[in-house]
Write a structure and sequence with these properties.
The complex is a heterodimer of chains A (387) and B (714).
Chain A: H1 10-21, H2 32-36, H3 48-55, H4 59-63, H5 67-70, H6 76-80, H7 87-102, H8 106-113, H9 118-135, H10 149-185, H11 197-210, H12 221-251, H13 262-287, H14 289-292, H15 297-322, H16 325-344, H17 353-366, H18 376-386
Chain B: E1 5-10, H1 15-18, H2 21-31, E2 36-40, H3 46-59, E3 63-68, E4 85-90, H4 92-96, H5 104-123, E5 138-141, H6 145-156, E6 161-164, E7 179-180, E8 191-192, H7 195-202, E9 208-211, E10 214-222, E11 225-232, E12 235-241, E13 243-246, E14 250-252, E15 269-271, H8 272-281, E16 297-304, H9 319-333, E17 338-343, H10 353-360, E18 365-369, E19 371-377, E20 383-388, E21 396-400, E22 402-407, E23 409-411, E24 452-454, H11 464-486, E25 502-503, H12 513-517, E26 523-525, E27 531-533, H13 543-547, E28 553-554, H14 560-569, E29 582-587, H15 591-600, E30 609-614, H16 622-631, E31 635-640, H17 654-671, E32 679-683, H18 692-706
Parallel strand pairs in B: 1-2, 1-3, 3-4, 5-6, 5-13, 6-9, 13-24, 15-22, 16-17, 16-22, 17-18, 29-30, 29-31, 31-32
Antiparallel strand pairs in B: 7-8, 10-11, 11-12, 14-23, 19-20, 20-21, 25-28, 26-27
C-alpha cells in the first residue's frame, strides 16, 4: 500500500485566513455549500472538499484544484452556510493566494498583497514617467497646439512596451507552473486529453465571454451585472487602445478622433460601462455584505485601480475638450500611472484572475474533469424559493 | 362499616345533550336501589360540590359515585373527607365527547359505566395505609462528583446522609483530571478542577457521615427501614437508612480488547485517562511515554470501541469533549503542535457545542470523519495512523508522536455494590448495556428497586456538569421516597396511592409466581416459599394480583373481585339483538389517558366497547377473561404500554407479562371451543389517541367475523 502521508500547514491556514478566509475553521463539513452551489458537479462537488483542505492546510491540493476557479463567488454557499464558514470567501482567498504563489518574481506577489507597499508601487510609474519626461525636456513646457494625448504617449510608449514584454514573460512562467501543478496533482482519468487543447480553449472562451456560469449565481446576482459591465467595458477599451496604437504608429491616423468616429464611440461607451460596473461592484461590496461577503485590501486594491482608470480616463477627455492643456496633460499623467499599475502589476494582482481562471477552465475541460451538472439550473430555482 | 352510596350525575359539558340523564339516574335509583341520586348541571362548581358535601354531612353518604368528567381532571375538586370513598364515572370524555349523541348505543354505554361505577363503589374501600416508623437518612454509595453532590444537596435540604466510598479518598476520577470542561457560559474556557472545593464544602455539613475505604456488606429490609452493614477496615458497622443513591461511577473501556489500535502493544498509544495523568505529571506539558519527548503531533481516535457492536454498542457522549479538551492541552503545551481528531461523528451535547466550535477554530486542530484501518510503529517509536473513508476525499496516513484512544464509559455495576438481601437478587437489574434504570424515557434516576436511585455515570455516561445535575435530581427523588413512605404512600408513578397489596395467606399455595414476577423485587419468601411482602418496596402495580392463581392478593380499592363484579354488571344484549359487547382493560398510565385525549379531540369510536381501567396490564388476572367470556362478552382487548427492549411499561414488565399470560390462555380457550382471537393484547402510547378508532374497528371487524360469543345464551 502506497503511503499518503498528510502534510498539514498551519502557516498556509493563517495566510488564507488573512486573504479573506478568516472563518474557514468554522466549517463542520455538512456540505450544504455543495448542495446549494449552482456550478458544483455531481460526482466531485465543491466547495465542501476545498473547505476541509483549507482547514487542514493542504496547500498542494488547493493550489492545483481547477474547481477553485470554477467558483464565481456568487455567495450562495456563504448565505446558506449554517456555521458562517463563508466557503465562497475561502475560495476567493485561495485564488488570491494563488496569484502570489505563482507570481514570478515572488516578492512582487507579496508587495501587491500588503497596503504598506502601495506608495512604493505607485511611485514606480510616477518616477519612471517623470524621468522620461525630464530627459525629453517635456516637463518644462506644455506642448503647444491642440491637446493630443498621443504626444504624451510618444514619450512613455517605450516604458509600456518594455513592461508589457516583462509582464508577458512573468505571466507565462506563472501559468506554466500552474498548469504543471494541476497536471501533477489531479488524477488523469479516462477522459484526459480527449477534448483536445483547441476545443478546450474554444469552450472555455465561450464560457468566459458569455458569463454563462457566472449567471447561474443566485444570492449575489448583482455581482454578475457589475462584472459583465466591467468585463465588456474593459474589452471595448482594450480594443480601442489597440486600434489607436496601431492607427497612430502604422497608419499615421489623425488624433484625437472626432467624437462621431465609431471607434471613439466604442471607447466612450466602454469607459461608461467600466465606471458603471465599478460603481455597482463598490455598492455591492459596501451595502450587501451578506451576499458579497467581507472585502479585503486585495479586493479593494484591484477595484480601486479599475475605478480610478475609468474616472481619470473620462476626466482627461472632458478636460481636453474644455481646452485646459496643463490640467488635461496632468490628469492624463495620473491616468497613465494607474494604467501602468494595472498592466505592470497584472501577474501579481487580482487582475490575474482573468488568465488563471481561463487556464483553469481550459485545464478542467482538457483533463476531462467533471462538468457542472445540468440540473443545477433547476436546483437554483428551488433555492430561490427557499430564500 | 356500612356503606351508604350517593350517585351524582353532571349534565354539563355536553353530557345532557348526549344522553338522557334522567334515564341514567334510574340505573341508580331503580336498578341498584341507591337512595341518593342527583343530577346537577355543573357538578364541579361550588354549588355542585356543595350538594355532595351536604349529603355526606346530613345523610351520612360515605361512598360517592360521580358521573361527570374523567378522573384525571378535577380530582382536587371532588376530594372530600378522607373517610369518604370517591368513584368517578367518565361520562364526558368516554361517552359524550366520543360518541354520537342521543343514540341508543350511546345511552347503553353511559348506563353500563354508571353500573360499573356503582358496583365498584359498593365493593371498594378507602385504603388504610401501611405506616411504619421511617428513618429518613439517605445512603449515598460512591464518593465521586455525583455522590458528593447528592450528599451535599440532601444535607442542604436538611436530611442526614451516610456517604460510603470504596477508596481512602473522596473525589473519584475528577481528582485525576488536569483541567475540567467549562462549567459556565460561554462554555469556551477550560477550568481548573474544583473537586477539592466540593470536598471541603461537604465536610462543612455535620449531617453527612463519611465512610471511606468502605464497602456495603449488605442491605436488608425495605425503604424507610433499611439495615445497612458497612465494612470498614475489616470491621462491620451497622446503620439505618431510608433511601439510597447509587453513584458508583464508571470505568474506561479496556482498549486492549480492540484489535488494530495497538493499545498495550505500542508505548505511545494511550487512552484518554492516561492522557490526563500525563498532563498532570508534566504540569501541562505533554510528553510521550516512550522517551519523555514533548509531543509535536497527536492523533485522537474517537469511538475507540464505542458504537461498535463487538465492544460498547452505545455512545458515551463525553469522549468527543474529552478529546477536544485534551487537544487544547497539547496546543497550549506547544503552539506548533498539531492535533488530529478522527471521528465517527462529533457529539458535543447541549451548550458544549460552543466548546466544540471554539476548539474547531484552532488552526492546529484538524478534524475529519474517518475509520482507522491500522496503526503501526515507526523506528523512532512514533506512530503511523492509516485512516480511510475520510472527508479529505482519499485514504490518508498521519505520522504522530502519540495516539490517544477516546475510550467510552463502562458503568461500575459489575462488582457487588448493594448486596441487597432480596429474594430476586443482590444487585440492581440492568438494562441491555449494563445501566440500571426502570424506565429510561419517563423516569430518570429510577431503578427497578424502590427508593434506590442511580446518579451520574453509573446511570448514563456524562461529563461532570451533567453528573451534578443528575446527583441533585437523584437526591430529590430519594428525599421524596422517604417522605412518601413516612405517610404510607406509594412512590412514582403512583405517588399518593395509599393502598398496598394484602395477601390472604390461608389460601396461598406457595407457587412463588408473585415473588418471581414482582418487577421490583418487593416480595421475599419464607423457608416454605410463601410470600413475605414488603409494602415499602412495592410500587402498587398489581402484577402480583394478576399473577396469583388463587386470587389471594388484593388492594382495598382494587381487587380481582371488584373488577370481576364490574365486568359482570355490564348488560350484555342477547344473541337476537345482534349487538356485540367488547371490554377494553386499559392501562391507567397511557391507554386510559389516550382515550381521554381522543374524547377531547371529539374522536368518534365504536360505542359497543366498555373501558375498564387497570393499574397495569400486569395486574390483569386471567379470571377476568373467564368471567367476561362466560358472561357473553364477545371480545376482550388488553391495551397497555409498549414492551420489549425499548419498553414503555411504567412497571417495567407488566405489559410483557400480560402478553405472555394471554399466550398461555389461548390453549385453554381452544379447549373451551372459543376462538383465541377474541382476546387481544395491544400496545398504545399516550400520543396514539388518533389510532383508537382504527384499532377499535379492526378488532370489531375481527370479532364480527367470528360471530357472537357462543356462551351468550347460557
Amino acid at each position: 500500500m502506497a503511503n499518503n502521508i498528510i502534510e498539514t500547514d498551519i502557516d498556509f491556514i493563517k495566510d488564507i485566513k488573512k486573504l479573506g478566509g478568516s472563518s474557514l475553521k468554522n466549517c463542520f463539513q455538512c456540505a450544504t455549500c455543495s448542495v446549494v452551489c449552482s456550478l458544483s458537479s455531481d460526482d466531485k462537488p465543491f466547495p465542501r472538499k476545498e473547505m476541509i483542505w483549507a482547514q487542514w492546510g493542504l496547500k498542494d491540493k488547493l493550489l492545483s484544484d481547477p474547481d477553485v476557479w470554477r467558483c464565481y463567488q456568487c455567495g450562495d454557499c456563504t448565505v446558506y452556510c449554517p456555521r458562517g464558514a463563508k466557503p465562497g470567501e475561502v475560495m476567493g482567498a485561495v485564488r488570491n493566494y494563488s496569484f502570489m504563489h505563482y507570481a514570478v518574481p515572488g516578492f512582487m506577489g507579496k508587495a501587491l498583497g500588503s497596503a504598506k507597499y502601495l506608495p512604493l508601487l505607485l511611485a514606480v510609474p510616477v518616477i519612471l514617467f517623470l524621468v522620461v519626461l525630464q530627459l525629453m525636456g517635456a516637463l518644462s513646457a506644455v506642448p503647444a497646439g491642440p491637446i493630443a494625448f498621443t504626444r504624451f504617449d510618444n514619450y512613455v510608449d517605450a516604458i509600456f512596451i518594455i513592461v508589457s514584454v516583462l509582464v508577458i514573460i512573468a505571466i507565462a512562467t506563472g501559468i506554466s507552473r500552474f498548469w504543471k501543478n494541476m497536471d501533477k496533482n489531479n488524477p488523469h482519468n479516462g477522459n484526459y486529453g480527449r477534448a483536445g487543447i483547441v476545443n478546450s480553449i474554444i469552450a472555455a472562451a465561450s464560457e468566459v465571454l458569455t458569463h454563462r456560469n457566472f449567471k447561474k449565481c443566485d444570492a449575489n446576482n448583482m455581482r454578475y451585472t457589475g462584472h459583465l459591465a466591467i468585463f465588456y467595458g474593459f474589452i471595448a477599451l482594450f480594443i480601442v487602445t489597440a486600434i489607436v496604437f496601431i492607427g497612430d504608429r502604422v497608419f499615421q491616423m489623425e488624433l484625437p478622433m472626432s467624437q462621431m468616429n465609431p471607434v471613439k464611440i466604442l471607447g466612450n461607451l466602454g469607459a461608461v460601462a467600466l465606471i458603471l460596473g465599478c460603481a455597482i461592484a463598490v455598492y455591492n461590496r459596501v451595502s450587501r455584505k451578506k451576499q458579497s461577503g467581507e472585502s479585503y485590501y486585495y479586493d479593494w486594491l484591484f477595484l480601486g485601480i479599475l475605478s480610478l482608470i475609468g474616472v481619470t480616463g473620462l476626466l482627461s477627455e472632458l478636460i481636453r475638450l474644455s481646452g485646459n492643456a496643463p490640467a488635461a496633460y496632468w490628469t492624463y499623467f495620473i491616468h497613465l500611472t494607474f494604467v501602468f499599475f494595472l498592466i505592470g502589476y497584472f501577474p501579481y494582482s487580482k487582475f490575474a484572475h482573468l488568465i488563471y481562471r481561463f487556464v483553469a477552465i481550459v485545464y478542467a475541460r482538457y483533463a476531462g474533469l467533471s462538468e457542472p451538472a445540468e440540473e443545477a439550473v433547476s436546483g437554483n430555482i428551488e433555492t430561490k424559493s427557499i430564500a | 362499616m356500612d356503606k351508604k352510596l350517593g350517585v351524582y350525575i353532571c349534565s354539563g359539558c355536553d353530557i345532557a345533550d348526549s344522553v338522557d340523564v334522567e334515564k341514567l339516574t334510574k340505573v341508580g335509583t331503580e336498578e341498584q336501589k341507591i337512595p341518593v341520586c342527583r343530577i346537577h348541571p355543573n357538578l364541579c362548581n361550588q354549588e355542585g360540590v356543595g350538594i355532595i358535601k351536604k349529603d355526606i354531612q346530613e345523610q351520612g353518604v360515605n361512598a360517592v359515585v360521580i358521573g361527570a368528567c374523567s378522573p384525571r381532571v378535577h380530582f382536587d375538586t371532588f376530594s372530600f373527607d378522607p373517610s369518604v370513598y370517591v368513584e368517578r364515572v367518565n361520562l364526558r370524555e368516554h361517552v359524550a365527547w366520543s360518541h354520537v349523541p342521543k343514540e341508543e348505543d350511546t345511552q347503553m354505554l353511559a348506563e353500563d359505566y354508571v353500573r360499573m361505577g356503582i358496583v365498584k363503589a359498593k365493593k371498594a374501600n378507602v385504603p388504610k395505609p401501611y405506616i411504619e416508623n421511617i428513618n429518613k437518612t439517605l445512603l449515598v454509595i460512591g464518593g465521586g462528583i455525583s455522590g458528593i453532590t447528592s450528599a451535599i444537596e440532601a444535607a442542604k435540604a436538611g436530611y442526614k446522609v451516610i456517604l460510603v466510598e470504596k477508596t481512602p479518598v473522596l473525589g473519584g476520577w475528577m481528582r485525576r483530571w488536569y483541567k475540567q470542561l467549562p462549567q459556565k457560559p460561554p462554555y469556551k474556557e477550560l477550568q481548573d478542577v474544583d473537586i477539592e472545593n466540593k470536598i471541603s464544602d461537604l465536610k462543612k455539613y455535620p449531617g453527612i457521615k463519611l465512610y471511606t475505604s468502605s464497602e456495603i456488606e449488605k442491605i436488608s429490609g425495605q425503604p424507610g427501614m433499611f439495615d445497612v452493614s458497612i465494612k470498614q477496615d475489616g470491621k462491620t458497622v451497622t446503620e439505618k437508612a431510608g433511601s439510597v443513591v447509587i453513584a458508583t461511577g464508571w470505568k474506561p473501556y479496556d482498549a486492549s480488547k480492540i484489535d488494530g489500535l495497538g493499545f498495550g502493544k505500542y508505548s505511545n498509544v494511550i487512552n484518554n485517562v492516561i492522557m490526563e495523568d500525563i498532563a498532570v505529571q508534566g504540569k501541562g506539558s505533554i510528553k510521550r511515554p516512550s522517551d519523555n519527548k514533548e509531543v509535536k503531533s497527536v492523533v485522537f481516535v474517537q469511538c475507540a470501541g464505542s458504537r461498535d457492536k463487538n465492544h460498547l454498542p452505545y455512545c458515551s457522549s463525553v469522549c468527543c469533549l474529552a478529546s477536544l479538551k485534551q487537544a487544547s492541552y497539547v496546543r497550549s503545551s506547544n503552539p506548533d503542535a498539531k492535533v488530529y481528531i478522527v471521528y465517527k461523528d462529533m457529539r458535543t451535547p447541549g451548550q458544549y457545542e460552543n466548546f466544540y466550535k471554539d476548539k474547531q477554530a484552532d488552526d492546529g486542530i484538524f478534524l475529519t470523519k474517518g475509520d482507522i484501518s491500522g496503526i503501526t510503529e515507526n523506528a523512532d517509536k512514533s506512530l503511523r495512523v492509516n485512516v480511510k473513508n475520510t472527508l479529505i476525499g482519499e485514504d490518508i496516513d498521519i505520522d504522530a508522536d502519540m495516539v490517544v484512544l477516546a475510550t467510552g464509559m463502562v458503568p461500575a455495576t459489575d462488582a457487588s455494590i448493594l448486596n441487597l438481601q432480596y429474594r430476586q437478587g443482590k444487585e440492581l437489574p440492568m438494562l441491555k448495556y449494563g445501566f440500571p434504570d426502570s424506565n429510561f424515557i419517563c423516569f430518570p434516576y429510577e431503578t427497578q428497586r424502590t427508593a434506590i436511585y442511580a446518579a451520574g455515570c453509573v446511570r448514563q455516561p456524562a461529563e461532570s456538569k451533567t453528573c451534578k445535575d443528575d446527583a441533585t435530581g437523584a437526591a430529590l427523588k430519594a428525599i421524596q421516597a422517604v417522605e412518601l413512605e413516612s405517610v404510607g404512600s406509594a412512590v412514582h408513578p403512583r405517588a399518593g396511592d395509599l393502598s398496598y397489596p394484602i395477601f390472604f395467606m390461608q389460601k396461598c399455595t406457595s407457587c412463588k409466581r408473585c415473588t418471581e414476577e414482582c418487577p421490583f423485587g418487593a416480595i421475599d419468601e419464607d423457608e416454605k416459599g410463601a410470600p413475605k411482602p414488603n409494602p415499602n418496596r412495592c410500587r402498587r402495580c398489581g402484577v402480583c394480583m394478576g399473577a396469583c392463581p388463587e386470587r389471594i392478593v388484593s388492594f382495598d380499592n382494587y381487587s380481582v373481585d371488584i373488577v370481576s363484579s364490574m365486568i359482570k354488571s355490564i348488560e350484555v344484549p342477547g344473541e337476537e339483538d345482534e349487538k356485540l359487547r367488547i371490554i377494553a382493560l386499559a392501562c391507567e398510565n397511557d391507554a386510559y389517558p389516550a382515550f381521554d385525549i381522543a374524547g377531547v379531540n371529539r374522536t368518534l369510536y365504536n360505542p359497543n366497547m366498555r373501558i375498564i381501567p387497570v393499574r397495569c396490564l400486569g395486574s390483569v388476572n386471567i379470571v377476568w377473561i373467564a368471567d367476561a367470556l362466560s358472561k357473553g362478552i364477545d371480545g376482550i382487548m388488553l391495551i397497555g404500554c409498549k414492551y420489549g427492549d425499548d419498553y414503555q411499561c411504567h412497571f417495567i414488565k407488566g405489559s410483557e407479562l400480560a402478553n405472555k399470560r394471554m399466550e398461555n390462555l389461548k390453549e385453554v380457550l381452544q379447549r373451551l371451543v372459543l376462538e383465541p382471537e377474541r382476546v387481544k393484547v395491544m400496545q398504545l402510547e399516550i400520543s396514539d389517541y388518533d389510532r383508537i378508532p382504527e384499532l377499535m374497528n379492526d378488532f370489531m371487524a375481527k370479532v364480527n367475523e367470528l360471530g357472537p360469543n357462543p356462551y351468550k345464551s347460557f
